[in-house]
Amino acid sequence: MNNEFVVKHLYKIMERYDLVLIQEVQDQDLENVPNFVENFRKATNKDYEYKISESLGRKTYKEQYLYIYRRDLMEVFYNDIYDDGDESKGEDTFAREPYIMHIKSHLLPANGIILVGAHIAPKKVAQELEEMVKVHAFIKEKFSEGISVVFMGDFNADGSYLSNRKKEKLTFFKDNDYKWILDEDTDTTLAKNDYTYDRIIIYGQALNEMIIADSAKAFYYDEAFSLTNEEAKDISDHYPVEFKIGI
Fold first, then answer.
1. Where residue 200 sits, what CATH number does that domain have?
2. Hydrolase among the record's keywords (predicted)?
3. Which helix (H) or strand (E) segment is 20 a member of?
4. Hey, which residues are catalytic here?
């Protein structure tokens, strides 16, 4: 990354968080991410580390998931892509398989939490979100039945991609154990619409009880940093969505 304006503002946004998921990263040979994180560490004087997925996608366009987190506050015990079947045989469901990470911290429930980052394909939103039930079943089997889980990312879960009728049929929506913590009127992109494409879904009473009231929201960095729409879009066409936990 050599756009000083973009990098400066990305750092300002990222410094707000102890952990952040970044999507649509394209750095298969890791020519940029290590330096980006190292410079972020120096700029903030905080012990940030990262985990990055392999490149994912069915055709020529590929992208990666990137977790950046405070190593002094949490420890990673597992990170891997969810295996949804043999892509070469057409047995997989996700265009970009979710990236799962298990972290522990004195700030979290004793057994830690599971993060599931996913960039849902816009043409198959309902299908891929329903497949998340199998992802959760895998997590329960591998870790524990009651471990808290954060499902998050650009789910394209609004507008023409996911009607209210289709959303209401989703297991994650019908089952009250899954909490959609962002308000339905949260605008998560810089587009002219006000759709809530990006979502955070929480499973697990232990984590739900730690979430600070009204902390789940989008961070409108264009307003915070007095940027024009074009300047803001140079940074990202989506706003970060966030929540805070307390003990």
1. 3.60.10.10
2. yes
3. strand 19-25
4. 63, 119
